[in-house]
Amino acid sequence: MSDVGGAADAHRWTDYFEKEALSETGRTIAIVTAAYLDEALIALLKAALLPCATSADPLFDGPYAPLGSFSAKIDFAARLGLISSGVAQSLHLVRRLRNDFAHATGTSSFEDHGAQMRVHELSRLNAVATPERRQHFPAGKKGDFLCAGSWLVYWIWTLIDRMPPRCPECGLRHFPATHQKKGEAQGAQGTTG
Fold first, then answer.
1. pTM for this structure?
2. Nearest to 21 by CA among 11, 9, 33
3. CA 8, CA 163: separation in Å to the nearest integer?
4. Mean pLDDT computed over 18-37
5. Hey, what's the torsion of the CAs at 104, 105, 108, 114, to 10 degrees?
6. Is CATH 1.10.287.1260 the right assignment for the domain spanning 10-162?
7. How do the domains of the chain map onto residue ranges?
8. Crossing angle of the two packed helices 141-161 and 113-125, in degrees rounded to 10
9. pLDDT digits (tens, 9 = 90+) for 61-88
């Protein structure tokens, strides 16, 4: 999943996610879903931030990177206003489910009580799928999780696609009509006095 750097295509990433996730066990689904969402958050944050001058980004790469964990990325994206509090809450539920499945010894399933409660909340927060769309996934909590995960993957890539372009003059993201060249604001102030 390291080829995330190009133009975002929400449908392509959603289709890729669904093909991979539908064929997996509950444990693998939780881990793979979190991995896709983690990659999408990296792409969203990198799209919002000024580019890093080096190939290894110290915000994301390395053992002491401040945005090295899924949790830190979720919180930072929410604090920047890139994602809503509901999306942040959903991503934290996915993260907790991933951790539950990753650290469980023996068998674990979406039918376990703890997983059911988290998936129920995740489904409540992401109840946007039409009945036809929901039928694309298996019945039960596993399917509910996949449906919500698919929506979150799609939504984050859609946010990236909707970002304004980078200004060639200043490097910030805004629509060209809102860019003021140096001196324009000062010139306007100087003519009023």
1. 0.80
2. 33
3. 10
4. 84
5. -40
6. no
7. 10-162
8. 40
9. 999 999 999 999 999 999 999 999 999 9
